Amino acid sequence: MGTVIANCINSFIMQDKGLEAAGLTVYFQTAAAFLDKNYAALVERVQSVMALADVLKSKNMLHEEKYSEIKAETTNHNKMRKLFEALNSGGNVVKEAFYNALREYEPYLFRDLGGDI
């Protein structure tokens, strides 16, 4: 029984893949896939970069050194590029926390990019 459940979970983890079951197509997209797919748009359009960085820092998901690097950048574009460096090195857990913060702080952008509110 545990193996069956594990196999089902593994099939749902696939990023950006359609899953066909009983004639219905169910689309699953992870937070990491959403961020990776929308990298350019996020770099270009996120306005509340430091608020998002603050969320990650408050959860101990962003080191002080990287936070300072982000803060030192003079444009939101460059701040987002630095923040993405931290997201990529932090892995899917950090990306999920960022995804949830993005949903809260930038709901219109989030929805415009296809995020599920």
From TrEMBL:
<dbReference type="InterPro" id="IPR011029">
    <property type="entry name" value="DEATH-like_dom_sf"/>
</dbReference>
<dbReference type="GO" id="GO:0005829">
    <property type="term" value="C:cytosol"/>
</dbReference>
<dbReference type="Pfam" id="PF00619">
    <property type="entry name" value="CARD"/>
</dbReference>
<keyword id="KW-0963">Cytoplasm</keyword>
<keyword id="KW-0395">Inflammatory response</keyword>
<dbReference type="GO" id="GO:0042981">
    <property type="term" value="P:regulation of apoptotic process"/>
</dbReference>
<keyword id="KW-0391">Immunity</keyword>
<dbReference type="GO" id="GO:0045087">
    <property type="term" value="P:innate immune response"/>
</dbReference>
<dbReference type="InterPro" id="IPR001315">
    <property type="entry name" value="CARD"/>
</dbReference>
<feature type="domain" description="CARD">
    <location>
        <begin position="27"/>
        <end position="117"/>
    </location>
</feature>
<protein>
    <submittedName>
        <fullName>Apoptosis-associated speck-like protein containing a CARD</fullName>
    </submittedName>
</protein>
<keyword id="KW-0399">Innate immunity</keyword>
<dbReference type="GO" id="GO:0006954">
    <property type="term" value="P:inflammatory response"/>
</dbReference>
<dbReference type="InterPro" id="IPR033516">
    <property type="entry name" value="CARD8/ASC/NALP1_CARD"/>
</dbReference>
<dbReference type="InterPro" id="IPR051249">
    <property type="entry name" value="NLRP_Inflammasome"/>
</dbReference>
